[in-house]
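## Example pair
The file below holds two records. Each record gives the amino-acid sequence first, followed by its structure token line.
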Amino acid sequence: MKSLFITLAAGLLVGVGSAAAQTTNAAADSHAEHHTPQPPGAAELSEGEITRLDVQALKVTLRHGELKNLDMPPMTMVFRVKDAAALAPLKAGDKVRFRAERINGVFYLTQVEKAP
């Protein structure tokens, strides 16, 4: 009888530990900041002017208008890019149209083009 009680108690502890691990993993997943696709029409381009480029550091400073998708007022700030080729045709003083997004807490230009 005593060994049956120990076996049942051990099985219960293993089950509780497994459930706790699943809950912890689910909570970690729900708190992680993920990049999610925007609904149709949300990919509007914003307008700005390049004030500085640092191609080696993959950074561009923009003076921009309101960024509706980020709920951000007009200002001058630094954005990152993932590919230096996106900055190759650009120079300080160029007017641009762009899409900025916050990915894992960092502001990136996900699309940039010279304004017509």
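Second record, same layout:
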Amino acid sequence: MIKAKSELREELRNQENLEFLEDYLKESRKVSRMVFNNQKSILLRCLNHINKSIKEISMLDIRDFLMNDIDKRDIKLDTKETYRSYLISFFAYIQKIELNKNNIFNNPVPSRKILAFTKYESDFKRISEEEDEIFTHEELLELLKMAKKEDYRDFIIFSLLTVDGMRINECLSIKTQDINLKERYIETGFEEGARKSNKGLIFFIPKRFVPFLEKYLINIGNSKWLFPGRRTHYTYDSFRKTTKSRYKKSIKFHTFRDTLITNRIKMGCPLTISEVLMNHKSTSVEGEHYLKLKISGKREFYDKYFPYSNFPYF
């Protein structure tokens, strides 16, 4: 939960900034708990490092913070850029607030062109390490067969991760009301921590997998959640611990996503279509502005570029 103002007040040195920070944290609470806590931590570090009223903060102030607090820490370059993005979002929020009051406030966070972070050895990967970051068909089949034998819920989860490349929280937070077996699609991404945008996400189901999902839906009865947990839906932490114990290894859930994308591209799937099917933001002008597909059109491409049609379940 968001800390009360009295608790934030103890952490924030410049009290003039309290209202801005408190209001922004209410807005950013839509993201996952871990991202929210990281964001709050960086904002507090920054504002306390500078110790000025927000409207007085300059780009030199932020640059000094990034250079002396962030860049000197032995953390990965991607993490440093994530911290920069937290600050950009916060000051963009302030900018909009001020514009509504007819006040001009420029975002003081320096871009990569103005301030480039230092790279450490940990920022570079060996090519040989990257080659092993997708599953083979044999590995996927073995995992699915084992899951079907051990726990039917695991089988359904691993199957959805395989055929759709969902992020694990997108998968675990599916509601039964958002499953359309007739049209073979699932909508998700509506819950806290299960989205990266303000839009819902749509994924498709292979024809031969529909009976397996129907059987599972009968088993869970009238549950609101496709994967019910003790209070709400089955959580990531619970699933991670269960899989590690049951299958004697730690499974990187994002690897399902990387594997599906790689296999689609090998089949000749255009990048713009792959982005649509993965609910990615388009990287091209044609994808962003001109490629507007109906559900039936997306499903047609899904079936055309489906790489697991030789699996017994799909």
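Notes on the second record: The two ends are 41 Å apart (CA to CA). Confidence is low (pLDDT under 50) at residues 1-5.
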